[in-house]
Each structure stands twice: as C-alpha cells, then as structure tokens.
Amino acid sequence: MFDMPRPRPPHIQHEKYRHGRRVWIFRRGKGKRVRLPDEYGTLEFWEAYNRALKDQAASPKVVRQRKGTLEWLIGRHMESAYWQGLSSATRRQRSNIYKNVIRNSSNPPFSTIDRLTIQQAMDRRAETPAQANCFLKAMQSLFLWALRNGHVEVNPTIGVQPIKYKSKGFTAWTTADVTQFCHRWPVGTKQRLALELFLVSGLRRGDMHVAGPQHLTGNIFSMRNQKTGTEVTMQFPQSLVNTIRQTETGAFHFITKDNGDPFTSKESFGNWFGSAMP
What we know:
single chain, 278 residues, mainly alpha, three-stranded antiparallel sheet, 11 helices, 6 strands
C-alpha cells in the first residue's frame, strides 16, 4: 500500500513514525504538514491530497489597482463570493475577457461607462457574434454585481441586446466515423482511450481533461461536474477499465499530452482530440 508511484506526485512525503508505522505527509515547501489517509490511491486519499494542494497554493502576486477604474472594479468583482460561485470554466473565460477589455481600453473610470459605451463595444465585435455575446454576458455579470453592491447607480448593460446569429454546431459522428477512428487508433493509444471515455461517460471536455485515476475505484467512476457542481457517479464496463490499464496515463489524468503533461484547458484538449479525427 505504501509503494510510491512514479512519477512521484508533488509535495508528498513518506515518513516513518514511532513503532515503525509509516504515513503519508503532504507539505508544500515550508508550508503546513498535513497528514493524508494511510491507504494510498483511494478516493479519500486523493480528495485529501487535492484539498491540501489547494490550501497551500502559492500566494498570487499583489497587483495594485487605481481605485475607481474599470480594472479596480473588475478586481473587486473577482474577489466576491458571487465570482467564487461560478464554475471554473466560466471564471477562466470571463477573466480572459476582462483582461482583453482592460488591455484594449484606456482603463477608464467605471462611472463613465454607459449604455452607449457597451453598445459601441458590441458593434466593434459584430464580425465575431459569439465572442461579442460572451463579452456582453461578462459585462452584464460585472455591472449587475456592481449595482447590487453599491458601486454604480445604473447598470449600463441594460437595453443592450445580444447579436443574433445561426450556428450549425458540431457535426454528429456516425457509426462509420467511430469505426474508422478505432481502426486508426487501437487500444493502448491515448486517442482511443479518450474516445471510449467519451462514449461511456458522456462527460463534457471540461470534465474529461481533468478526469483521472483518483476518480476511479474498481469499476466505479465518481467526480464532481465542473460546470454545475453535480456529483457524477457511474459504473465503467470492464472493457473500458481494461483499456485504461493498457494505456499510459498520468498520476492524476487519464489523458495527457505526448510528454506526459496534463492539458491545461478544455480548449487545448479539444483541439488535440479534434486533430485525431480521421
């Protein structure tokens, strides 16, 4: 039970207590020592490890923002309980939008932003309607929060409409497509494992790229959906479990890059899987 896997998960120490008892200890740098469950590899072990990893995350650099500016307002918004309640994918998307807004503007006082300002920003993004609508959602969220917390008296996004457009969406695979993919990527390849995980679990790419051995106990797979926070539990067929065992996986991710590193975002994972299609 105490054989340390390779590569070694970061910040885990295997120590011997009095009377010869061995225990797992988590410690990041000079941080607090955290005792982990004795049985390595169980769901409880990985949950405790992930909690300790999150608790001892490196402190972000303090960025000074001029009070009253749009950047300052966004900073306060991203410190709020409302922001923390959003899914990690939504926070990442909106964080990128806010960064672009600050970079491409003169970082004006947020009190000077009115409905015309938002509408003109939408007009400048009209050639990419999906991105324009994501921008509008991000600004609606920001100013709704600002209004509720007394930072503004008027929500400047009220009355600004999203851009209507038609999208063909993703083309559904046929049985022939799946068969062709399986011929190209046999069992043992990461691409084949990704396909079988998709077919069996029905997970979104945002969950798929973070799913790993810590979520699987025997044939039972269980993880929290990143988008909704719902706990997803299902039984994997033995054929899928066998495929996982025959494929090189990471310590915490079923699917990794060729160099063994995890995918840093659902977009990069999606691009990798898309490039594998016949």
